[in-house]
Amino acid sequence: MAAPKKGRSRGAQSRPGRTLAIMLIAMVALTGGMFLSGHHTPRLGIDLAGGTSITLKAKSEPGQKNAVNQTNMNTAVSIIERRVNGLGVSEAEVQTQGSDNIIVNIPRGTNEAQAREQVGTTAQLYFRPVLTVAAGQPTPKPSASPSSGAGKATGNPGKATDKATDGGKGTASGAPSATPSPSATSQGRPVTDALKAGASPSPSASASGKPTPPPATPTPDAATAALQKKFMELDCTDKAARTRVTTGVLPTDNAVACGQNGGQWEKYILGPAEVNGKDVDKAQATINQQSGQWVVNMDFTGGGSKKFSAITSKLSQQQPPMNQFAIVLDGDVVSAPSVSSTLSGSAEISGSFDQQSAQDLANVLSYGALPLSFQEQSVTTVTAALGGEQLQAGLIAGAIGLALVVIYLVVYYRGLSLIALASLGASAILTYVIMTLLGPAIGFALNLPAVCGAIVAIGITADSFIVFFERIRDEIREGRSLRPSVERAWPRARRTIMVSDFVSFLAAAVLFVVTVGKVQGFAFTLGLTTVLDVVVVFFFTKPLMTILARKKFFANGHPWSGLDPKRLGAKPPLRRTRRAPGSAMGSVDPKEA
Q1: What is the pLDDT of residues 361-380, one digit of tens each?
Q2: For residue 149, with 0-12 CB atoms within 10 Å meaning exposed, 13-18 middle and 19 or more buried, which class applies?
């Protein structure tokens, strides 16, 4: 007894309507999400929407020779690009011009103001011990009355908590401390010597803040006298003055700097840097669960953790304000917490942060400091007039190409062109919606090369339909009816389509990786549309073709269906002839009879 034949799974054949319905539901859901997001059009790049162009000129730091070189310029371009993209500003162009200039183009409609603040920020981070702190206004000369409040140090009273933690070992906080007098700066000793000797920060001031006779000390040298004069005369409310006192200061030097405490300026004398930004492994903006305030958490590298532990061990043995360390970013004191015990591992910067300022600080710290200082040479507004003209020309070219494709499909494939046009429409809708959603999601911005990539995708998508249609026609030419032809043609067409799209996607991926700037927009769009081509062919074109193959217009081979067997030169069906039983034996030739 013959074994029964195993029936093939007909899930894909018998339920094309379900696949098509899922595809349509997905398209409706994506379109609804686009409208609910409030973004109805894709974000445009600077060449189409205009924006801001910033020119930065590199300059060497004091003590650096031949620092403005190609290597440092390329490093700076990479860091600035990561910073700007970290703000969600995609399609920003960062490139060198000449030997010492960097051009940054930021599209309109993005975080232009924030990006402008960060592109030239050097982000040099240092942890410096505090020697003296006073109010931010110019300090009266020592001959003034000791009771004058002008030189009174605040010691960070009322400042939001600044702390560094190491598994609960201790906390550095910005608590109020003793108020040293201005004459404390006259001792001028390096902070490392003061820590070794266990000296108080202000020999001329008691814990109660009353003046006491200073001990006999050596006459300060010229550098110390200059530092003291700079500190006494500094007015922190003057931006130019703040910039002037930090210019040319090396990490190994004592420094004068300003910082804000509760909206009020304070000025500091700081010791040499003990820890720098290179010792920070990563930084992240978070909300402190206890205070509910935005803070920036930093994790140190292995070497940075050891340095931080060493400096906090020394500072914890000092009296205020010399038990404080200042977190200095580009010459400004961000915060100056005090230390009561040895800490390591991580630190938390807190202060008058909102979400945006905390994220900005974490952003610049995460991507590292620029190897050079930059001066903003010019800021210009870029109009979209030229880009608009080019976009119009590109759209006209795309419309002409699409019209030619449609004419070819209608003339050559007739009724099948309806399936192709519906598939092209589905692909166009998905491309538009996804590009629009990717704008706020990952910062994708549509530029002219990206438009070119979308136009090229029309040909890739149409090619997939043609491959499928030709496979079906080949099966009909072999004498098969339409429905079996569709199912037999699909596996062969599927392999060809997958190979073709894989090659296109691979080319787009390589182009995206090895290029920068606008060319990446072309590669990204080409890769996206290639993936969408596979989705549309598998989940829209094939199910729709299976459904229409059941309709008489196509199944009977109407002359306008594009599947007319006569027009395609189909062979007649092959039929086997059966011999009558016994015809090979016992037959008699009539002549012999």
Answers
A1: 787 777 766 777 788 888 87
A2: exposed
Alpha carbons 433 and 33: distance in angstroms, whole number: 9
357: left (phi over 0), alpha (psi -120 to 50) or beta: alpha
pLDDT of residue 67: 76
First to last CA, the chain: 42
What's the gap between Cα 323 and its chain centre? 39
Nearest to 526 by CA among 581, 458, 475, 445: 458
Indicate the range of 164-178, 230-244, 283-297 predicted with least confidence. Answer: 164-178
For the residues 105-132, what does the mean pLDDT come to? 73
Asked whether the beta carbons of 300 and 150 are under 8 A apart, the reply is: no
What is the average per-residue pLDDT within 457-479?
A: 89
Nearest Cα residue to 541 out of 402, 430, 424 = 424
Mean pLDDT of the chain: 75
Helices (H) and strands (E) in the chain, counts: 18, 15
Query: What is the reported pLDDT for 378?
Result: 82
Tokens for 215?
A: 């001990």
With 0-12 CB in 10 A as exposed, 13-18 as middle and 19+ as buried, what is 394?
middle
Least confident of 150-154, 244-248, 309-313, 335-339: 150-154
Does residue 183 surpass a pLDDT of 60? no
Q: What is the pLDDT of residue 87?
A: 57
**Residue partners of 42: CB distance under 8 A and separation at least 6:** 432, 435, 436, 438, 439, 444, 445, 446
Query: Which residues are CB-contacts of 391 (< 8 A; sequence separation ≥ 6)?
Result: 48, 448, 451
Report the greatest alpha carbon distance in the chain.
Answer: 155
Find, among 198, 101, 163, the residue nearest to 298 by Cα. 163
Cα–Cα distance for residue pair 285/304, rounded to 1 Å: 20
The residue written with tokens 């977190």 in the block is 327
- Kindly calculate the radius of gyration of the chain based on its CA atoms and give it in whole angstroms: 38
Which pLDDT score is estimated for 156? 39
| Cβ–Cβ < 8 Å for 168, 343 | no
- For helices 518-536 and 448-477, the axis angle rounded to 10 degrees is 30
Contact 326, 259 (CB under 8 A): yes
* Contact criterion met (CB below 8 Å) for 335 and 259: yes
